[in-house]
Specification:
305 residues, alpha/beta, TIM Barrel, two-stranded antiparallel ribbon, globular
């Protein structure tokens, strides 16, 4: 019987040198810092890992490095999304063979207009589920532009036993989680949310058992999930409201740059560079971010000092 994963599985950022090349030593330090934050697992090669700016060969290098360096200290979810079912299938099989505990997949899309319809999405995940034995997490995110209605998600959960985790981060996440669990809860091992935890408390109330945030404040977000699941609701609510200014700043102004800025400030990585056409974080947001990080005494802000 496979483990059921819950808690916090944050996205591993991809550090670059100032010239935009991969900082592989920094990648190892990022993983060590995140494990020291007390995470329940890690997610690699996701959108907040700048996966859309990585070449195929870089993906292979990073996946191998992350799985080998983590060395089963925590389970790893590998993001394997691709518009091509064949390529997605090959990525999933490779991740499973290298020791990933789970794969995370967005619905097949390419740009704004190339999207699979409901039956195409179903066939995509049918092929993936038959190709691997480890769990599959469906990432339901606005970035894809693909609408995944609850009846389709419930059908996938019921028809394919390893399609058992769902990361919902659409508008109205809590209501969608609630309806999905009502429709197929017996077939779902892990209802997760994302979006930096900006609706985390409402999502926990709707039935979420896990969250997939950035690497910014894992040690302070995890207690919200654990306290809520253990019935310490007042503690969870207090901590959530304490973190909301930071979560809001990250979600609305900083995006994936936030954890890189804090990790550079904390000596985890040498550079907070992002790859063009992404741009560096503006100074006003940077100053506010560092102030909030200091006020909260984030581990990432002092880990490498």
């Amino acid at each position: 019987m496979q483990d059921i994963y819950q808690g916090i599985f944050p996205i591993v950022p991809t550090p670059f040198n100032d010239d935009g090349s991969l900082d592989l030593d920094g990648q190892r330090r990022v993983i060590d810092c995140m494990i020291d934050q007390g995470v329940d697992g890690l997610c690699i090669l996701a959108n907040y890992s700048e996966q859309f700016l990585l070449s195929d060969s870089e993906r292979e290098i990073l996946q191998t490095l992350c799985l080998e360096h983590t060395n089963a200290r925590v389970p790893i979810i590998a993001t394997c999304s691709h518009f091509s079912t064949r390529i997605a299938l090959e990525r999933c099989q490779n991740a499973e063979n290298q020791g990933a505990a789970m794969v995370m997949m967005m619905a097949p899309y390419h740009g704004a207009l190339l999207k699979a319809n409901d039956e195409g999405v179903y066939q995509h995940f049918e092929a993936l589920s038959q190709a691997i034995d480890i769990p599959i997490m469906i990432q339901d995110a606005p970035l894809s532009g693909v609408t995944l209605p609850v009846p389709l998600l419930a059908r996938l959960a019921k028809d394919f036993s390893n399609v058992s985790y769902f990361k919902i981060e659409t508008p109205g996440t809590a209501e969608k989680l609630k309806i999905l669990l009502q429709a197929a809860g017996d077939h779902i091992d892990g209802p997760f949310d994302g979006e930096e935890g900006i609706t985390l408390l409402a999502d926990l109330e709707a039935g979420a058992t896990g969250t997939m945030t950035s690497a910014l404040a894992c040690e302070q977000i995890r207690p919200i999930v654990i306290d809520y699941l253990d019935g310490r609701l007042d503690n969870a609510e207090r901590q959530y409201h304490r973190l909301l200014p930071l979560i809001n700043l990250e979600n609305r102004q900083c995006g994936l740059r936030a954890c890189k800025v804090v990790m550079k400030q904390g000596g985890v990585i040498k550079s907070d560079a992002v790859r063009h056409p992404l741009e560096p974080l503006p100074q006003l947001a940077r100053n506010k971010l560092i102030k909030l990080a200091k006020d909260l005494d984030l581990i990432a802000l002092r880990w490498g000092k």
